[in-house]
């Protein structure tokens, strides 16, 4: 389920609402820069997001920069010790190390949701 995000040209934007200002706002996620957008209606928010993506792509092209944040393929996660122990046991039962087990779980979750 895609809730509180917008998608355009492979970019995602977070979506929030400010009751004080009566405005929707967000930022483009998964980039190294801060690019924000806002709108007073859902329609104007969508338009503002698309314009922000187009402007960002143009800027990246002008300066010769890759638009999306590069990733290394490794990250740390924090889970409870109990869940950690259960994951180790289950990975051993499936004849995998913990990294392989976590990667498989993520691959399955991504496949179900894409």
UniProtKB/TrEMBL annotation:
One Pfam family from the record: HicB
GO biological process, alphabetically ordered: regulation of DNA-templated transcription
InterPro entries noted in UniProt: Ribbon_hlx_hlx, TTHA1013/TTHA0281-like, Uncharacterised_HicB
Superkingdom: Bacteria
Name the record gives this protein: Putative HicB family RNase H-like nuclease
Provenance organism: Chitinophaga japonensis (Flexibacter japonensis)
